[in-house]
């Protein structure tokens, strides 16, 4: 198996980190949707639908 260059490892690590961060952000917004719904019901529903589709 050929050895991977440091640049390739860095690229893979960055991609994995971005995926992990995006997943955490999605979960964070899903948990806080009730707070948004209390502020503005219409906007909260729209944001919730966007998160589920995303």
From TrEMBL:
Keyword annotations: Membrane, Mitochondrion, Transmembrane, Transmembrane helix
Transmembrane segments: 6-29
Keyword Transmembrane helix found: yes
Protein name: ATP synthase F0 subunit 8
Gene (UniProt): ATP8
């Amino acid at each position: 198996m050929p050895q991977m260059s440091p640049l390739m490892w860095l690229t893979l690590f960055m991609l994995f980190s971005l995926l992990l961060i995006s997943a955490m952000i999605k979960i964070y917004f899903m948990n806080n949707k009730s707070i948004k719904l209390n502020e503005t019901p219409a906007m909260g529903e729209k944001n919730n639908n966007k998160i589920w589709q995303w």
